[in-house]
Amino acid sequence: MNRRAWILFATVAVLWGIPYLLIKIAIEDLSPLIVVFGRVAIAALVLVPIAAAQGTLSSLRRHLGPITFLGLVHIVGPFLLITYGEVHISSSLTGLLIAIEPVLIALLMLRAEPLTRVRGAGLTLGLVGVAVLVGLDVSGDRLGLLGAGMVLLATLLYAVATVYVQRKASDVPPTALVAGTTTVSTLVLAPFAAFNLPTTPVSGGSWAALLALGLLCTAVALLAFYRLIGEAGPGRAGLVTYANPVVAVLLGVAILNEPLHTSTILGFALIVAGCWLSTRPTRSASPRPSTESAAPVEVGAASR
Asked: Where is the region Disordered (predicted)?
């Protein structure tokens, strides 16, 4: 990768690694529902004008069904689950659990990709890594287990939506796709948010965290990610998935004083090894083009 690609890579890694810290700060004074609504509304306000300026919004007319589905499954569901989950678990553990997404995508694509010994070993390692994190970090804590379960369910929804994008919305321009899904999410959440407005004073830190979540971690991160794909290709851009949890853990430990256990390091190492093995391309005597391999670089990954 060239210098510009490395700068974009580092930018996206940081912007996708800090949401879990910012969520933790925001929910001190704001309800998880308001945090999610504010985040997607801010992102939509930024992304819709950009997509309009590019002339890509018209492409959404032919894809209203997929856009609505993705708004619910790739944004509303995961955002709510992750934000409510962080009420009970640390931001660093949240970031590590979400790193299992490539393994879940590989599981969902078993019919399209043959299960070789290497891929099978990768899937097993990744799942063992999750078991280590959950079993040792929140063992005996019912609320902690609930929070971890919510985050893992959110990660599964991310994986489902990623595969769905490949199959149903791969021809939608990326900026239009994300502008559409964030707008749908905003409209869906608005009625609920109206009845959950803050009734007590909200600190400037919580408002600032919410603004950063929508503006930096969603809108700006999306734009940087697509530039990264253009500079380095989708394969290399997808490697940013392995860097995000490191940022999340470092910030959680340094700023929120969250504990760093040996099990955390071991679990993350197993997950990374599992992701790498389970997503390695399979060799074929007569390779054929496939649309399956291009998209696990998640079109909506910046919704993290």
From this structure: 280-304
Which residues touch 180 (CB under 8 Å, ≥6 apart)? 51, 57, 60, 63, 67, 71, 172
What digits encode the pLDDT tens for the residues 171-214?
888 889 889 999 999 999 999 999 989 989 999 999 999 999 99
User: Is 127 domain-assigned?
Assistant: yes
Whole-angstrom Cα distance, residue 128 to residue 95?
A: 17
- Residue 52 burial (CB count, 10 A): 14
Q: How many domains does the chain have?
A: 1
Whether 189 is covered by a domain: the verdict is: yes
Most confident of 99-108, 189-198, 232-241, 250-259: 189-198
Single out the residue of 77, 76, 137, 157 nearest to residue 262, CA to CA: 137
pLDDT in tens, 96-155: 888 888 888 878 877 766 777 887 888 788 788 787 777 766 766 788 889 989 999 999
| Whole-number Cα distances in Å, 38 to 181, 201, 256 | 14, 17, 23
Number of alpha carbons in the 13 Å side-chain half-sphere of residue 32: 16
Query: Does residue 138 sit within a domain?
Result: yes
Residue 257 DSSP SS3: coil
Question: Whole-angstrom Cα distance, residue 5 to residue 37?
Answer: 32
